[in-house]
Design brief:
Layout (H helix, E strand, L loop, with lengths): L1 E5 L3 H13 L3 E6 L14 E2 L3 H4 L6 E4 L7 H10 L3 E3 L3 H17 L4 E2 L10 H9 L4 E7 L2 H13 L3 H10 L8 H4 L2 H15 L18 H9 L2 E12 L2 E12 L11 E8 L3 E8 L3 H16 L15 E2 L5 E2 L1 E5 L10 E7 L2 E6 L2 E2 H13 L5 E5 L3
Parallel strand pairs: 1-2, 1-4, 2-3, 4-5, 5-6, 9-12, 9-18
Antiparallel strand pairs: 7-8, 7-10, 8-9, 10-11, 13-17, 14-16, 14-18, 15-16
Helix pairs in contact: 1-11, 3-4, 4-9, 6-7
């Protein structure tokens, strides 16, 4: 099978290396503005022109690893319309354009696969789809961002502050130069949208999902929770409730002996609960050159070998997001007991002008709205749901 790779960064080069090991796959074109150090021998097949790929009748399949939405969307549509299968790990693209791209693939009799877009090397979406074939998914949840997990794990183990561990994560390559997508929860949000729509055939968009990241956490929060026997993680969760889906992203405090609390460094842990199967969890590297690259090539091999995939039909179930019944008790840290916060508090401790609180039951929507309002006013607070798992 002759394939092309669009984008030759970390994931694109990982897919290239995995393709060499797979056998029966030949990379004949790479879309890039310039070559990459260590891969000078590929310069003859590098092109900056998408038409050299879309217009080549010998290319059967294209891997999109450019990232972002544009020009990735434009290029993927061009390839699908040219009758080429497409495999992508691009969560931004799939989260924002899933239905449009799936419809275009179906109209042109080709496949669009993206199981590497959530969980990197973990076969999460693959097993979610597989379980769904003969069971009913009731809930999905998990740690799906390795950058955040590395920072939170290191803060817990070393007692370090957030800024210090973010800098170290960047130096190690776990965090981007601009880490906002990770630490503000946007990366987790996109993975949540993809997973939710597949699990429940839902019509959830990014705007429907309350999302609060870890960018306001401080060493004092980690120390307080640790004293209470709790460990903070950034969690996605989606749960089916009759004719709607409860779905959100937020920091969550777990008992120190729980599975989630013991996910170390940049690993992921993603869990599904099905009506008959019960609960299953998937653990491993959620990102990186080879874990993601190999997952991409697994999709390529499945298409080559004619293996069907029960992706489902987003929107077929008519389920929309509704968080009105999602209620938790929260840990809240803030610098003053204002009129908006005080009625929510069940108990608190005050130290050096900082209030460490445990809330009464509060809706997810109310808690997130308050958190974002405080951010906008330049008076950021931190909160974490108290896990009920």
């Amino acid at each position: 099978m002759k394939i092309a790779i669009m984008g030759f960064g970390t994931v694109g080069s990982g897919a290239y290396e995995a393709a060499k090991n797979a056998g029966g796959i030949e990379v004949v074109r790479i879309l890039a503005r310039h070559g990459r150090k260590g891969y000078e021998y590929l310069n003859d097949i590098i092109t900056p022109d998408i038409d050299d790929i879309a217009g080549d009748p010998e290319i059967d399949l294209v891997i999109e690893s450019i990232g972002g939405i544009e020009p990735a969307r434009e290029y993927v549509l061009k390839c699908l319309r040219a009758g080429k299968h497409v495999v992508t790990p691009n969560k931004n693209l799939i989260s924002a354009c899933y239905k449009e791209l799936m419809d275009e693939a179906a109209a042109n009799g080709v496949k669009l696969r993206f199981t590497s877009s959530v969980g990197g090397g973990i076969p999460w979406l693959f097993n979610l789809m597989r379980t769904k074939r003969c069971d009913e998914i009731e809930e999905i949840r998990g740690i799906v961002n390795g950058t955040c997990n590395y920072i939170l794990d290191a803060m817990y183990d070393k007692g370090a502050d957030f800024g210090e561990m973010l800098t170290i994560a960047q130096a190690l390559g776990y965090a981007e130069a601009d880490p906002s997508s990770d630490i503000e929860g946007t990366d987790t949000l996109r993975k949540t949208v993809i997973s939710t729509n597949i699990a429940f055939d839902a019509v959830v968009s990014e705007a429907d999902v309350p999302c609060y990241g870890i960018d306001t956490i401080q060493a004092c929060d980690v120390a307080y929770l640790r004293k209470k026997g709790l460990v903070c993680k950034l969690i996605m969760k989606a749960k089916k409730n009759d004719d709607s889906v409860e779905v959100y992203v937020e920091p969550t405090a777990f008992p120190a002996d729980s599975f989630e609390a013991n996910v170390k460094i940049n690993n992921n842990l993603i869990t599904l609960t099905a009506k008959h199967l019960g609960t299953q969890s998937y653990f491993g590297q959620g990102a990186g050159m080879m874990p993601t690259g190999e997952s991409v090539i697994q999709d390529v091999l499945d298409i080559r070998d004619g293996k069907e995939q029960n992706i489902g039909n987003a929107g077929a179930g008519g389920l929309k997001a509704d968080n009105s019944k999602a209620v938790h008790r929260y840990y809240i840290r803030h610098d003053r007991m204002c009129e908006h916060i005080e009625p929510l508090i069940e108990s608190y401790e005050e130290k050096d002008g900082i209030y460490y609180c445990i809330s009464k039951p509060v809706t997810v929507e109310q808690m997130h709205k308050m958190g974002h309002h405080r951010k906008e006013k330049g008076k950021a607070m931190f909160f974490a749901a108290l896990s009920e798992e």
